[in-house]
Amino acid sequence: MKDVIPLRILYINYGEPSLSGATSTITKIIGNSRKHGMTFDVLEILPKGEEGLVSKFKEISDNIDEHIVIRLPFNRNILGKFYFYIYKSIMIKRILNEISPKYDFIMGAKHEKNINILFSIPLIQLPLWKFYIKLARVSNPIEALFWLRNAYSFYQYSRISKRNICAGVILREQLKNEFGIQCHALDPPGGVDEESLRKSSDITAEKFDVIHVARLGLVKGTRDAIWVMDKLNRLGFENNALIGPVDVGYDLEKEIVGRSIRYLGPVNDGSKLYSLMRNAKLLLYPSKLDSFGIVVAEALANGLPVVAYDIPAIRHYFGECKAVSLAPLDNREELLKEALKSLEHRDELRDYATECGSLFSWDATTKSFRDILDSFSAND
């Protein structure tokens, strides 16, 4: 076995991280980094009142050498966002000029040592002036201007960067063909938390018929999931739940009012989430855009069959699994039919599900990440 050259990496976090696949990937790579010859330091730039990455995900603290927190005196009102933007644009460069020599790679800032990670396609549309008007309508003219500037800057930077990493082979091809962005595929893009899986068996969770776990909103198909749950309720599957944070601008309360569907909120504790999956009958995941689908892998590992829309990433990573049923995109009726079939055969599907879920591990994802960094070092 060849010697592994140690790598030291600085990860820069701006503001309170949301519960998402991207956040899970970062925290799990940090958590598994030492086994693959990597050490992480974390620099956090936090507006007033916001919780940082290390505080929110305490399990990574043992795998961090140095943790630096810079607390800004403003919250995220309009003035605070302007100050935040200036700080990111000017002060971070000064900080990196001082500390960058001790790192092999930097994540989260434009720098010659930067690693650029993409978890989705760029959130930008042409022509830019029409995109700006669209943003202004859902926020305000000033915030829309900052958002547009940041989105376009990230898009342009990604096009010229030689150190892009993207979440999976499907996203790699999409970025290349539609946006002219070249990247190295992190593959598999995500995995299952083995410790949470072990602990989940000791937790007694409420039993649900159908659950929908996601960043709740239109992109992840929450409206379609609610429609199917409402139909299932009339057919005797009455105990259904939504789990996860709610996207900005999505009125979840309005969507579920008058329906027998519970909202459990975000579940940050992995073992508790896995226990909920273990005690449910079906995961409904009608996502319309995805690069992988971490929650699908997690559900399968807990013996939970899945019904999803037939989109490229879900088909690529889970299409061969007998415990995953796919319905044509945006076809609620077929989604309902597949859900009923899976509920009818759920007992025989559980073993298939567990077998499929065992194929995905965060250790494999971290190894892929390390291999990509080694290729960057070799090219340098």
TrEMBL record:
<feature type="domain" description="Glycosyl transferase family 1">
    <location>
        <begin position="194"/>
        <end position="354"/>
    </location>
</feature>
<dbReference type="GO" id="GO:0016757">
    <property type="term" value="F:glycosyltransferase activity"/>
</dbReference>
<protein>
    <submittedName>
        <fullName>Glycosyltransferase</fullName>
    </submittedName>
</protein>
<dbReference type="Pfam" id="PF00534">
    <property type="entry name" value="Glycos_transf_1"/>
</dbReference>
<dbReference type="InterPro" id="IPR001296">
    <property type="entry name" value="Glyco_trans_1"/>
</dbReference>
<keyword id="KW-0808">Transferase</keyword>
<dbReference type="InterPro" id="IPR050194">
    <property type="entry name" value="Glycosyltransferase_grp1"/>
</dbReference>
